[in-house]
Write a structure and sequence with these properties.
By secondary structure, this protein is α/β, with parallel strands linked by helices.
């Protein structure tokens, strides 16, 4: 499953990890949060740490704005083509 998410939505990512994407309940589920870069470097630094901790972040090299939503899609499909070739299903969801 991949989740479109804004760069600064740390709380929503954590809520998803604790609920329907909890690896203790769904060990076969691979989750990936797709987001762009923030204009705030502190947010980007926190995302880097979060990615190292959870290994579930796909961060594209574009500003995370509604106008750049197509870049999120491209980033997600690039990841899917490279990393998910054996997946039976691919599910796209939004964080809201």
């Amino acid at each position: 499953a991949y989740v479109f998410n804004k760069a600064d939505n740390f709380e929503k990512r954590n809520a998803i990890r604790k609920t329907w994407a909890n690896k203790n309940f769904f060990s076969n589920l691979k989750i990936a949060f797709v987001l762009g870069e923030s204009s705030d470097q502190i947010v980007n630094d926190n995302i880097r740490l979060e990615s190292e901790t959870f290994d579930d972040i796909i961060q594209g090299n574009f500003q995370d704005t509604l106008r750049n939503l197509s870049f999120k899609s491209i980033s997600a499909w690039k990841y899917i083509n490279e990393e998910c070739m054996n997946a039976d299903y691919i599910l796209k969801v939004d964080d809201d």
